[in-house]
Amino acid sequence: MADSRVSVGAWWDPEIWSRARAAYMYDLDNHPGVPAGFIQWLHWVIELHLNRGVAGRASLQLQPRRELAARSDPEHPEKVAGLTRHHLLRSDLLKDLDHAIEADRQAQQYRTRSTWLHDAVVMAISDAEQRAGGQLPEIPDGVRLPNQPTKTCNR
Prior knowledge:
Elements: E1 5-12, H1 14-30, H2 38-51, H3 53-58, E2 68-69, E3 80-81, E4 83-90, H4 91-106, H5 113-131
Parallel strand pairs: 2-3
Antiparallel strand pairs: 1-4
């Protein structure tokens, strides 16, 4: 029986989106535990963040996400035009993610789904950058990631 999936919209900082794609491509070829496919990588990242628990997530000391807007506005250059992306997440994982958001809220950590995903991905980017010696591959805007990549871990 196939697992059920739910389309989940997320509001992304374009810089983090670009770096997430680069972290995924680096991990695809250099981390033996990473699954092939971006959505599978995203599932993996979410599971890692879930496993940190409420206290672990609260202790991360992440920079807040930049303020996002629907479009660029010269009068408010501090606001970045956000990207909306939809991801087909496993329904059981989404349920766990929503429980984690609720548990975090009980611990006075207030995050939307998009912000929670942002934090999970920022941690994955940081981990990949550290493993890569500080330099992730450049994935130019507009370049599509492979749909069904072959896993070729170099380690």
